[in-house]
C-alpha cells in the first residue's frame, strides 16, 4: 500500500474509534514518523480543582506517539506496551495540539515520543512510549480502508 494511502487509512481508523466520540479530536499524519492531534478541552473534562483530568493528557500523548509509531508499520496495528507521562502545567478550557514523533525501531519494538502544546505553542506535558507490532491486520479494522 502506498505511504499516503496508509496515512489516510490511519486517520480514518482514528476517527472511527468509539473512544473518539467521547474525546472529539482530529488526527493528521504529517509524514512517516510524525503525527498531530488537535483537541479542545471542555469543562466537562475537568477534575474537582477546575483543570483537565490526567486522562486527557494520557490519551492525547499516547495517541500522538502511537500513530507516529504506526505510521512506520504498514500492515499491522501496533500496541502500546509502556508509556511515561511528564505533566508540566494544568490545562483549562483551551485548544491543545499533541505532536507525536517516531524515535527508533521499526521491526518488533518501536519507541515514539509526544508533546502536548497549548494554543500559544507552550508545552504542557510530554510522553514517551514503546509500541509493539501486533498480529492484527490494519486492513481488517473498521475505517482503515477507504
UniProtKB/TrEMBL annotation:
Keywords (alphabetical) are: Hydrolase
Question: Does the keyword Cell membrane belong to this entry?
Answer: no
Name the Gene3D superfamilies on file.
Hotdog Thioesterase
InterPro entries per the record? Answer: HotDog_dom_sf (IPR029069), PAAI_dom (IPR003736), Thioestr_dom (IPR006683)
Keyword hit for Hydrolase? yes
Residue stretches in coiled coil: none
Protein name per its UniProtKB record: PaaI family thioesterase
In alphabetical order, the GO MF annotations are:
acyl-CoA hydrolase activity
Which intervals hold domain Thioesterase?
A: 50-124
Amino acid at each position: 500500500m502506498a505511504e499516503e494511502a496508509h496515512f489516510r487509512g490511519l486517520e480514518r481508523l482514528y476517527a472511527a474509534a468509539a473512544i473518539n466520540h467521547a474525546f472529539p479530536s482530529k488526527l493528521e499524519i504529517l509524514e512517516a514518523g510524525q503525527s498531530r492531534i488537535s483537541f479542545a478541552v471542555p469543562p466537562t473534562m475537568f477534575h474537582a480543582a477546575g483543570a483537565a483530568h490526567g486522562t486527557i493528557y494520557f490519551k492525547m500523548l499516547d495517541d500522538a506517539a502511537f500513530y507516529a509509531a504506526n505510521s512506520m508499520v504498514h500492515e499491522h496495528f501496533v500496541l502500546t506496551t509502556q508509556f511515561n507521562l511528564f505533566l508540566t502545567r494544568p490545562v483549562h478550557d483551551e485548544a491543545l495540539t499533541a505532536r507525536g514523533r517516531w524515535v527508533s525501531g521499526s521491526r518488533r519494538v518501536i519507541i515514539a515520543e509526544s508533546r502536548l502544546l497549548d494554543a500559544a505553542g507552550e508545552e504542557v506535558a510530554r510522553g514517551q512510549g514503546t509500541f509493539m507490532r501486533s498480529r492484527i491486520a490494519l486492513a481488517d479494522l473498521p475505517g482503515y480502508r477507504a
